[in-house]
Amino acid sequence: MLKAQIVPVTALAQNCSIVWCDETMEGAIIDLGGDVDRVLAKAAELGVKVTKLLLTHGHLDHAGGAAEGRERLGVQVIGPHREDSFWLDQIETHAAEYRLPGLRNVTPDQWLEGGDRVSFGNITLEVRFTPGHTPGHIIFFEPESKVAFVGDDLFKGSMGRTDFPRGDFDTLIRSITTQLWPLGDDVTFVPGHGPLSTFGEERKTNPFVADKVLAG
Q1: Cα gap 134→58, rounded to integer Å
Q2: Is the torsion defined by CA of 40, 123, 194, 84 positive or negative?
Q3: Which of 71, 140, 182, 196 could make an S-S bridge to 149, C-beta 3.0–4.6 Å?
Q4: What are residue 176's phi and psi, to 5 degrees?
């Protein structure tokens, strides 16, 4: 069974997720955006053997700690889609602008495409390609537990910004409605920032992507 522990990282309070298989205690870290010492200490406290680092997209608060994590753990960085390579190459520049020290550029060991799968222990995450917030954004979905890790695509009561370079509002709406909603209203999602919610709740109440809003 999938287990997860959220550790907010950086001054931007990004929801970094330690996820693991409770049978084997093998796991992964999704969006190691910074505060690497604290995240790795929590993984060790939980008894999780981290076997890979997964990225939903290339923004600094989601990927800025991945290079250091790879060096310290000796594991691969996997994801996002290669269309976000330009973001990953600018992490240090943007970190200086935001005054977030220690974040570094990173080149993944493996890019991901929609339809790919990533496994650790007895858990397999399905990958969906969800551009819009960034051009290479992906999400990870675990069907048995009905949990999705959606990065900055969707939030409780909001959705991702699309005013960054190569962001696109219509593309993000299409990604949410064609890639997230079909997974099921009963899916709980972990957003990149803020509290958890379900797709069903957002389809009812979200002022940007509720069914009645998009229909009207």
Answers
A1: 8
A2: positive
A3: 140
A4: -65, -45
Could you tell me which of 138, 130, 134, 160 has the C-alpha nearest to residue 54?
138
Residue with tokens 């890639």: 179
Residue 55, pLDDT > 90, answer yes
CB contact at 8 A, 102 and 91: no
* CA dihedral angle for residue 8, residue 10, residue 137, residue 147, rounded to 10 degrees: 0
Alpha-helical runs (H) found in 99-139? none
For residue 53, give the nearest of 45, 39, 41, 44 by alpha carbon.
39
Q: Compute CA 200 distance to the chain's CA centroid, rounded to the nearest angstrom.
A: 20
| Single-letter amino acid code for the residue at 25 | M
Classify each residue of 139-150 as buried b or exposed e, where b means 16 or more C-beta atoms within 10 Å of its C-beta: bbbbeeebbbbb
**Is the omega angle on the peptide bond into residue 143 within 30 degrees of 0, that is, cis?**
no
Residue 150 phi, psi (nearest 5): -110, 10
The side-by-side arrangement of strands in the sheet containing 26-30 is: 2-9, 14-21, 26-30, 49-54, 76-78
Which pLDDT band, with edges at 50, 70 and 90, does 216 fall under? confident
Tokens encoding 119: 């496994």
Q: Is the pLDDT of residue 14 over 90?
A: yes
Closest CA to 58 of 28, 99, 89, 95: 89
